[in-house]
Amino acid sequence: MLPFLLLGTRAEDAAAEGEYRSFLRFTGLAPSDLHRIRVEQEPLPQLRLEDYSGIFLGGSPFNSSDAEVTKSPTQHRVERELRQLLDRVVAADFPFLGACYGVGTLGRHQGAVIDRTFAEPIGPVEITVNDDGAADPLLAGLPLRFDAFVGHKEACSTLPAGAVLLASSASCPVQMFRVKQNLYATQFHPELDVEGLIQRIHIYRHAGYFPPDQAESVIERARDSAVTWPPHILAGFVRRYARA
């Protein structure tokens, strides 16, 4: 099988390793079948799409809607390199799944409005799958309503032209969309279970996602949740796109 590729942008080693382990666990891939590039550490090489079955883009502390003058040189480089990669990925309709940061990255590349209108605090929300989502093969077998973990400062307030909305939540109307037939973005985190979210709560306690003194209550709310369905999306992506 050709490997899948995970593009990460988390500067904190613990967060980066936790994300990688989560993708390994929920995709069912061996490390040899899930290559990883930490784009925040090194320039993105010229990738040959034909060497991979598909591409995952993990979450990020970067926000595409940040004012350009406030972005670091690293963020500017990462955004430029991802845009250049997406030029080829979209043109080829190459299998792509971006989690959280994927909405801002793929959405902005395709002309979406990405802003802070529909930010959501860290924790579980109920995701509602619409008719197009129910008919999409990547969501096959999932219920029309399921809980997922979110935590984001920006979101898509206007879909790109031609994109297909697949799922929403009460506080964020664009939770999942598809571009062409094989490019997906989720605002929720399909790679997170309770323990994975708790790790991120500790790591990003002072990153502005919630008041730091409320960390324990955020953790308790996560522990009381029943988030089990989102990882099936990752496994389904691998089943659908794995190729020799």
UniProtKB/TrEMBL annotation:
InterPro entries: ChyE-like (IPR044992), Class_I_gatase-like (IPR029062), GATASE (IPR017926). Gene3D superfamilies: 3.40.50.880. One of its GO terms (cellular component) is cytosol. Signal peptide: none annotated. Residues 46-192 form the Glutamine amidotransferase domain. PANTHER family: GLUTAMINE AMIDOTRANSFERASE YLR126C-RELATED. This is GMP synthase (Glutamine-hydrolysing).
